[in-house]
Structures are given as C-alpha cells and as structure tokens.
Amino acid sequence: MMKIDINLNSDKPVYLQIVNQVVKLVALGEAPPGSRLPAIRSLAQSLDLDPGTVARAYLELEKEGVITSRRGGGSFVSSAAREKPFTQSYEKRLAAVVERAILEALGLGFSADEISTAFTLQMANLREQRTHSNTHKGAISDSQIKEIRFMGSHDLAIELLASHVNTLYPDVHLATTFVGSLAGLVALECGEADIAGAHLLDDKSGEFNIPFIRRLMSNETVVVINLIQRVQGLMVAPNNPSHIIGIQDLTRPEITFVNRQKGSGTRILLDSRLLRLGIPTTEIKGYEHEETTHMAVASLIAQGRADTGLGAQSAANTVGLDFIPLLKEHYDLIALKETFERPPLDKIKEVVCSDNFRNILRSIPGYDVSETGKVTIVGPKLS
Question: Whole-model pTM above 0.70?
Fold first, then answer.
C-alpha cells in the first residue's frame, strides 16, 4: 500500500504535498510502473481531506505523465514514469543537495571516509528517531535479493556494515534486528538468524562471547569474527552537569537512569557491576525503563529525559554527549561455520576485512580495529 503523509501546518498546498510524495516514491522505485494508487475517496478519508483535494493532486500527476487513470478502474503509475523529466528533476535536486553537502564538508578539511562515516551515523540516528528503516533495493526484484538475517546486539558498526554490504553487493541485503546479545545467539541456534552480534563478558574467565557460545551451542562448529573492540561507559549530557563519575552515582535520588533491555550485553554488564558493588536495582531511578539500542538511550539523554545510561562511546559521540569510560569490550559476529563460508554470508567477511571498512571504523571515537577481522573457530564440546 502506497504510504502518503501530509503536514497541515506546511506552507505548501496539500495537493502539491501529495504530488511531491507520489513523485518521490516513483523516482526512488518504491512505486514501480503499474502499481495502483489509493482510490481518491479512500485516500481522502485516511488523510481526513476533501476528496476534491486528492482529485486535484491526481489530475496534476496525470497531466505530468506520472500516472494514468482508467475510468472506473483506478489510477496507476505510468509505465514511462521513471523516464519523465518530472521524476528526473526530483533525482537531480536530491543529487544537488547531497553534492553541496559533500563539497562543503571537503572544503572544511574532512576526508571522504570521514564524510561517509558521518552520513551513515546520522542516517542511523534518523532511523532510530523515526522508528523505521529503508530497505529499498533499487531495480533488483525481491526474488533476486539474497537476505542475510542478523539478530543481536546493537552497535553503529552494524549500521555501517549493513550499509556497506547493501551498497557493494546490491543483490545481498543484510537485514538487522536488534534484540540483544543473548537473544541473538539463541536465534542463531534456533535457525532464526544467519549471523548474530554479541559482546557478552564472562565474569569467571574474563572472555567475551566464547564461553556463552560453548554453553548455548555446544554441538556446533561456530565462526567468531571480531567486528570491533569498543569502549562502553556512562553517557551523560554535555559538560556532565550532574557530575556523574561512576556506577555508584546511579543511586543518587536526583539521577534518572535509562536502561537497556534484558538479555542485551550492556544490561548484563550493568547487572554484573551492580552485583559486584552490592547495589540493589531498586535504588536506581529509571532502572525499569528499557530501550533496545544505544542510540535510543543516547537520544533520551540528549533530549534531557534522562541523566545517564550505559552505552557505547560511538553512540554518545554521534549525538554530542559526554562520556565516562568503564571498559573496552569485544563485539563479535557469530555464525555457523558451514554457512559462514558460503554465499551470501561470505560477503560479510569480505567487507569486515576490507581496508576501506576498517578505515571508517578507525575514524569513530571509542573503536579499536586492531583485531577487526580476526577469526576464531569454536568447535563442538567433547563429551
């Protein structure tokens, strides 16, 4: 179903807002030739508009050759719509906006890799704020796309990885679902994911992820490839107005904390620290408030709705927060060996080990790429 939204507070006439959105969907390939537009009355009702406003928009679109209407049979995207100057001008305007931003950044002395990183991180932030992601794959049909299902812990490096894979290999789509480290490993074991992302610290051995893999997947041969080493700590508002210096400050009555969901590596890290320090969770205001990504936590702090939360330095830096480091941890990608070395999963290793990808990660505060691409094989547990 074609999704169209309007802004009644905009200076632009409502019928032109509808026109522009349909043109945008056609130009981006999200409304392919032959796809049907909502009926005039149906769209008017859903947008709470007079049907005449929608009819005027459709008339303009038909005049421009973007759609064709069949008497009594509805309105459809024209077979030649993608070739029309109307949609081409949209693409040119977008390209011009992007080009101006890139040239301005280059003029300020930023490198191409830094600009690429900033663009990807800002897009990740916008996706978080708008609670949706765009998985458009251009002219390649759904039947041609090989999907890799990622489930696990959130990190901006995963956003970058997905962007690189999806760009370099248009027939491969890395679909990300952020459910936490433990849930990602369980999904991998159950066949609900092709690859998982985790940063689980085993207090007893001091190792990351491997002890948990051995417990959860004792009969499997598993590939563990390091994505990054990253710094975890407390994210706080700029200049740290609450003067937070460590975990102990979470018990102060004036401090509002925002937590991560159960099963996430960050939540497990926090609970381990609280247990070690003898701090009851009931003494932390906001402990029950859970978010599923580092960016969600960082955004709440940036908005002033919380004073602090545990997360990655990269997320804090993206939204302009200050950061109090606590430890460096390993964030690994985990997959079954039998599938990791075959298409399409083999593309993951190619991207992770590429110099371009490592250089982009290296430019992000809080990331250490000294072991990025390092592979460890975890074999079945011997009885």
Answer: no
| 64 to 12, 83, 84, 310: CA distances (angstroms) | 19, 12, 8, 53
- Of 52, 86, 105, which residue sits at a domain end? 105
Clarify whether residues 99 and 154 are in a common domain. Answer: no
Instruction: Determine the length of the chain.
Output: 383
In Å, how far are 1, 7, 24, 134, 240 from 90, measured between CA atoms?
A: 22, 20, 7, 18, 44
In CATH, what number is assigned to the domain containing residue 32?
1.10.10.10
Q: How far is CA 84 from CA 58, 62, 137, 293, in A?
A: 16, 12, 21, 41
Name the token pair of 356: 């371009």
The count of structural domains within the chain is 2
Distance between CA 324 and CA 240 in Å, rounded?
9
Ramachandran category for residue 136: left, alpha or beta (phi over 0 → left; psi -120 to 50 → alpha):
beta
* One domain, residues 231 and 323: yes
CA torsion through residues 224, 180, 185, 232, sign: positive
Same domain, 352 and 225: yes
How far is 317 from 246, CA to CA, in rounded Å? 18
Look up the domain containing 57 and give its range: 1-105
Q: Are residues 48 and 161 in the same domain?
A: no
With left for phi above 0 and alpha for psi between -120 and 50, is residue 292 left, alpha or beta? alpha
Residues 29 and 160 in one domain: no
The pLDDT profile of the chain, 383 residues, written as one tens digit per residue, is 577 888 887 777 888 889 888 887 877 677 788 888 888 888 888 888 888 888 888 888 888 788 887 666 788 888 765 555 555 555 565 666 677 777 777 767 777 767 777 776 666 655 555 444 344 434 444 456 789 999 999 898 998 899 889 888 888 999 999 888 999 999 999 999 999 999 999 988 999 999 999 999 989 999 999 999 999 999 999 999 999 999 999 999 999 999 999 888 999 999 999 999 999 999 999 999 999 888 889 989 999 999 999 999 988 988 889 999 999 999 999 999 999 988 999 999 999 999 989 988 998 889 999 999 999 999 986 55
Residues 125 and 98 in one domain: no
Q: At what angle do helices 156-168 and 355-362 cross, to 10 degrees?
A: 150
